Amino acid sequence: MSIWAFDATVDELNAMSSGSLVAALGIEVTEITERGLRGRMPVDARTTQPAGVLHGGASVALAETLASWAGYLAVDRTRFHVVGQEINANHIRPVPPGAWVYAEVTPAAIGRRSHVWEVRITNGDGKLVCISRCTLAVIEMASSYTSEERRGG
């Protein structure tokens, strides 16, 4: 059984990211499943640290992006909106430039006033790169956010 309150497509979510940090880092949602989302991010000049490997902050941005999209899809958007409240991340292994990292977000707890999402980021071999937990606050405010609103239209 699906956990989503509203249907959306991968293309719709990616379009709403246009012009944002998400797009600037090359983050893409790649799949919506019944119990989570999957996405990916390139390891390139936008997402590496001076030492030449994936920047931990880029991993956190990927994790919070997927957790936020998941929360957005899991609430009644006519009544609620979600915002990031806390995030933590454990960085397990480096990833060199030229690769992609892949992330999957699943719920740890979906409550009326808060959500906790777990995000596992892996490399191309499926090895764990980062594990993150993101808490979202559910606020009573309509979330009619669309790609047109993002562009100011």
Keywords for this entry:
alpha+beta; Thiol Ester Dehydrase, Chain A; 6-stranded antiparallel sheet; 4 helices
Structure overview:
- By secondary structure, this protein is of the alpha+beta class.
- It has four helices and six strands.
- It has helices at 10-16, 21-24, 56-74, 147-150, and strands at 28-32, 37-42, 80-91, 100-110, 114-122, 128-140.
- The chain has a six-stranded antiparallel β-sheet.
- Strand 5 (114-122) and strand 6 (128-140) form a beta hairpin.
In short:
This protein is an alpha+beta fold.
**Strand ordering within the main sheet:** 1-2-4-5-6-3
Portion in beta strands: 35-45%
**Number of DSSP-assigned strands:** 6
CATH topology, what is it called? Thiol Ester Dehydrase, Chain A
What is the average per-residue confidence, as pLDDT, rounded to a whole number?
94
Terminal Cα separation, in Å? 36 Å
What is the second-level CATH architecture?
Roll
Spell out the helices and strands N to C: HHEEHEEEEH
Radius of gyration of CA atoms, rounded to a whole number: 15 Å
Q: Look at the structure and name the CATH superfamily.
A: Hotdog Thioesterase
Percent helix range: 10-25%
Q: How many structural domains does the protein architecture include?
A: 1
Largest sheet: 6 strands, antiparallel
Which stretches are low in confidence, meaning pLDDT under 50 for 5 or more residues running? 147-153
- Global structural class: alpha+beta
CATH class: Alpha Beta
Shape: globular
Number of helices: 4
